[in-house]
Write a structure and sequence with these properties.
The protein has helices at residues 43-50, 73-79, 96-104, 111-124, 140-152, 170-185, 197-203, 221-225, 228-235, and strands spanning 5-14, 17-27, 32-36, 58-63, 66-67, 81-83, 158-162, 189-193, 206-211, 214-219. It has 245 residues and is α/β, with parallel strands linked by helices.
């Protein structure tokens, strides 16, 4: 079976800065791929290139048999590749239901159908009690779940998660990890940027490591965590390995 996502040699410069250099990745259907690396390694730029918010200077991206060259984010979303954002910005004065309904309208243009989908997704992420509350009144963990709900409402095949656990305490993080596992078990493939290594090791089937815009290692979580190049570039000698998936 051909890969769900095939990234071949994509690069992006900003002036003299080579933010992403000759990056190649593949993902199978149903896979969770962790993308890690130090701040400034090019991870979010890579997400922007895959989701149409930036255009690669070179290279190609194919998703589910389609070339993504020249496609805008809404068109890529329509194919089933959807991303969340590290900085969560819901529509603050809209209710949780209306925030999620905006996402649902991407595939369900009839308002009643979009509302029904939004309610189902809100329950799925654990925000059912907040359905009619304005997004401005949500806590940070609830806003993170709302961001996930808005993305899930578009009915993705591949979900790109950009630091969805940033700023959460261990209990809140564990709740999001469990939610992501359930999303993956439902058939959604996941590409995950995350600095919480325990979460990455728990969730990922494979991990790719970026440093200065280049992929330096890719492989199973335990092998990546023990690779000297990864320890030097990112984890540090004091890293204590969490249980591998």
């Amino acid at each position: 079976m051909p890969p769900l996502l095939q990234v071949t040699g994509i690069s992006k410069r900003f002036g003299g800065l080579h933010a992403v250099r000759d990056l190649s990745l593949e993902m199978a259907r149903g896979e969770v791929l962790g993308l890690i690396g130090p701040n400034g390694a090019g991870k979010t730029t890579a997400f922007n290139l895959l989701s149409g918010f930036l255009t690669p200077d070179q290279g190609a991206v194919r998703f589910d048999g389609h070339s993504l060259a020249g496609l805008k984010p809404h068109a890529i979303c329509g194919l089933g590749l959807v991303r969340t954002f590290q900085i969560v910005r819901p529509f603050p004065h809209l209710s949780v239901l209306d925030n999620v309904r905006v996402g649902a309208l991407a595939r369900r243009p009839l308002m009643a159908e979009a509302r029904e989908m939004a309610r189902a997704v809100i329950d799925r992420v654990g925000l059912g009690a907040k359905t009619d509350q304005a997004a401005a009144g949500l806590t940070l963990p609830e806003r993170k779940r709302l961001e996930l709900a808005r993305a899930l409402a578009t009915e993705p095949t591949l979900l790109l998660l950009d630091e969805v656990m940033a700023g959460l305490n261990p209990t809140e993080t564990a709740g999001i990890v469990g939610l992501i596992q359930r999303i993956n078990e439902s058939g959604v493939s996941i590409l995950l940027i995350e600095h919480n290594m325990r979460a990455v090791m728990t969730l990922s089937h494979r991990i790719a490591v970026l440093n200065f815009g280049e992929k330096i290692v890719e492989g199973p979580p335990a092998a990546v965590a023990n690779d000297p190049r990864v320890i030097e570039a990112y984890l540090g000698e004091e890293y204590v390995h969490p249980p591998a998936r």
